[in-house]
């Protein structure tokens, strides 16, 4: 294996290693944000355990108690959570 190939392999490995923790931190922040939004809207949830992004400002949040909500911005720019 030549030096360029070794360097390229090392760079790719470092990129994969370094992006994992950043993604996990973003996911944890999103879970907290969705939990807060649902609670502020007065809906039962407890804690959001997973989020699926459907589009910009459009998510499906699954709660620890089993409830699922679609959280999105409506045409007026307000945050809405609809039970799924």
Task: Walk me through what this model shows.
This protein is of the alpha+beta class. It has one domain (23-83). 45% of the residues lie in helices and 30% in strands. The protein is built from one helix and four strands; from the N terminus they run H-E-E-E-E. It has one helix at 3-40, and strands at 48-55, 58-63, 68-73, 79-83. The protein has a four-stranded antiparallel beta sheet with strand order 1-2-3-4, with helices on one face. The longest helix is centred in the N-terminal third of the chain and has 38 residues, at 3-40.
Q: How would you summarize this macromolecular structure in one to three sentences?
A:
The chain has 84 residues and is of the alpha+beta class. Helix content is 45%, strand content 30%. It contains 1 helix and 4 strands, in the order αββββ.
Write the layout of secondary structure elements.
Layout (H helix, E strand, L loop, with lengths): L2 H38 L7 E8 L2 E6 L4 E6 L5 E5 L1
Antiparallel strand pairs: 1-2, 2-3, 3-4
């Amino acid at each position: 294996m030549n030096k360029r190939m070794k360097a390229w392999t090392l760079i790719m490995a470092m990129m994969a290693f370094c992006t994992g923790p950043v993604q996990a931190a973003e996911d944890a922040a999103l879970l907290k944000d969705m939990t807060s939004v649902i609670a502020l809207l007065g809906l039962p949830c407890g804690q959001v355990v997973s989020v699926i992004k459907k589009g910009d400002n459009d998510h499906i949040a699954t709660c620890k108690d089993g409830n699922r909500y679609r959280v999105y911005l409506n045409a007026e720019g307000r945050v809405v959570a609809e039970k799924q």
